[in-house]
Amino acid sequence: MPDHSQVLDHSQVRSRLRQRPPMLLLDTVREFTPPGSLVATKAITGGEDCYRDMADGAGIDGFSYPSVLLLESFGQAVSLLWSLAGLGPPDEVPLMVGIRDLVHVAPAVPGDVLEHHVRLNHHSGQAGEFTGETRTADGRTVLTVGSILVVSRSSASLLPAPPAPHPDKDGR
Q1: Sign of CA dihedral 34, 40, 126, 88
Q2: For position 171, what pLDDT does the model report?
Q3: Does the chain have fewer CB atoms within 10 Å around its N or its C terminus?
Q4: CA-wise closest residue to 131 among 115, 114, 147, 151
């Protein structure tokens, strides 16, 4: 059986995602098996923005990686699988529209290297369903995801609207 694994370094990850620091939350893709599985990594460091205002002397429990950032990082791994597997036209962007059976199993802290294991369950047209889990490099499960629903939309439709006119000093 041929080996379909593929590795993306950080520059290649960055070229495939729209996010930029501080919201670019993946480092590498260490495994990709077409058409439907991927392992992406994220190293958590104490220098991340989410820890900027931590009080001196805070115990390690205070450094639990925020769950919303953990989910965003997992979602970026889903987006990379969408891209690498060619699930949508290149001018379209995958958008996460639904999540089911999301369980935060254990905290992740600075020093942990996360591995997002993402699998494609189903794809049809502009929609796909994914599942997976996040583990630390030493095998501790941090997050399980029963289902993430993704749809794609054209990049042009996601451009920001023009700014609203500013009222003059009299409020008109």
Answers
A1: negative
A2: 58
A3: N
A4: 147
- Using H for helix, E for strand and C for coil, what is the string for the chain? CCCCCCCECHHHHHHHCCCCCCCCCCCEEEEEECCCEEEEEEECCCCCHHHCCCCCCCCHHHHCCCHHHHHHHHHHHHHHHHHHCCCCCCCEEEEEEEEEEEEECCCCCCCCEEEEEEEEEEEECCEEEEEEEEEECCCCEEEEEEEEEEEEEEHHHHCCCCCCCCCCCCCC
The mean pLDDT values, 10 residues at a time, for the chain of 172 residues are 67 94 96 95 96 90 95 98 92 94 98 98 96 98 98 85 70 58
pTM over 0.70: yes
Where exactly are the structural domains of the chain?
A: 10-158
pLDDT of amino acid 1: 45
